[in-house]
Write a structure and sequence with these properties.
Elements lengths: L23 E6 L6 H15 L3 E6 L12 H4 L4 E4 L14 H24 L34 E5 L5 H6 L5 E5 L3 H4 L20 H21 L4 E4 L2 H10 L8 E2 L28 E5 L8 H13 L9 E6 L6 H16 L4 E5 L34 E5 L3 H9 L3 E6 L9 H7 L4 E4 L4 H4 L17 E4 L3 H12 L3 H18 L2 H16 L11 H27 L1
Parallel strand pairs: 1-2, 1-4, 2-3, 4-5, 5-6, 6-7, 8-9, 8-12, 9-11, 10-11, 12-13, 13-14
Helix pairs in contact: 1-15, 8-9, 8-13, 11-14
Length: 565
Amino acid sequence: MEPSGPPALHPSQYPPKHLASRLRIAFIHPDLGLGGAERLIVDAAVALQQRGHEVEVFTSYHEDGKDGRSFDETRDGTLKVHVLGNSIFPRSILGRFTIVCAMLRQLHLAASFIFASWLYNFSSLPGLSSLLVPLDAPFTSSRDWSPRRQLEPFDVVVVDQLSTAIPALRWYGLNRVVFYCHFPDLLLASGPHGVSTPHDPRAGKPFSFASELRSYYRAPIDQLEQSTTGEADKVLVNSVFTQQVFEATFAQLRRTPRVVYPAVDVKQFGNAVVSEQDKWLVADDRPTLLSINRFEGKKDITLAVEAFARLRASGDGKYANVRLVCAGGYDPRLGDNVRTLASLQQVADRFGLSQFTYSTNDISNVASPVPARFRPSISAKVPDDAAPVRSPDVLFLLNMSAAQKQLLLSSTKTVALLYTPMYEHFGIVPLEAMASGIPVLATETGGPTETIVDRGLPSEASSSCETTGLLRSRDPTAWSQALADLVSLPEPQRHLVAEAGRRRVRDQFSLDRLGRDFELACRDAAEIGYPIPYEAGYKKMVAFFAIAIITLAFGIGAFVLGMER
């Protein structure tokens, strides 16, 4: 009897693929607007590009042009951004089913991406090449995508936020996939209308009948998220805290994701900024406490106002000249935002603090789900010099511009940043403050415990310091005492804390480090030598997706024909 040959190799025994020093890397992101997740993706793409790799970004929504609500790097040609898969599915249906629409939009995006890759593979067929957009066609903006565009294969695809399209990208496009999980979506899903409240995601969601009913709608979506996340070749998360949440949430996957921290461009912070238009924000000489967060209940900005009020009432008038600026994103279409801001104004009134709420854009005509009598008072006009609210105790600054943010962070009058969210996944704002030399006061939960170092404030005899801020429990009294310590900190000791913050950001959270960490993850995924078509269940999965896509196409076609008749 002849030998049947050597036994088949286990996937772990396959030798790694040989890769060129320069990788082709694609980023697939749902909607490329302005936000923390988008900032991370842009930073990672730019950092990889600076390390010599060829990077392109694919999204289903991007605002191009001078005034587009997107980052400069995606509009000025620094990054190649392509918009595709944006012509079938809306973002929501009557304001609901946003997650289902987001998943369908991502599948459409992935299908368009895969189709463009197929065009490249079949471009050698007679007559087809003349119909396709040449590979060397000049890139002008994100609006120049064409269904006839072909894509040269990528070594690895980076997907973030939604995992729905990972199996299609791997098993139809034969792409190795790195998935960046900012946080499990099933824990981010919004609950019933109202003001969101902070809670520990590792302990599950607070019970409510509305949440129980919603769980039936979310069940198949959550199961799909877990299954598709498990298909990624490498999974990354933004903090050790998120890593713990991931392992508890997706226990069936039995995977420990790799931590890759977000980063900030140190060179953009710490420099003095002059802005005549926004000079009124720092017009007086009062010490300023700064809070930067979206106006959402779960961000717990109430803690900042309450701690500030207690600070003002302490010290026999010693801190009467300190002011508080609460700045962040605000959308009047979101009930949580509206109710949160109204509640903050009421808290300020209850403590007898003068206040003024200013919006950098006029939102008076934007529809709101909250009845008019419960909405906050907002002004779109800068108060003149004679107005009593020109220099209020508390300034609520809505939808601040990048210039306004830089002005506040660079001002020598800003003495501390208050970062109030509990169980925050990571938190980029403390890094921006530390890079600007501003001490941070934050809750001792979540991601901030990994970025802020609290070794106690330095004494007069100290010549060096590791402390970059203070971590405290959620207690307004403890926070007011910590604020008193920061406001009263002598200039030499303040300088030590500022230098410690800049040094920590530069060493641990720089763009160069982000690029190295992402490069390592991409290489680890791209080097996997075991061919994807040999994986168990590959043929079944391809057949399943083929049937699903054909069924969906026929369903859409029948719906369109029915509408036309």
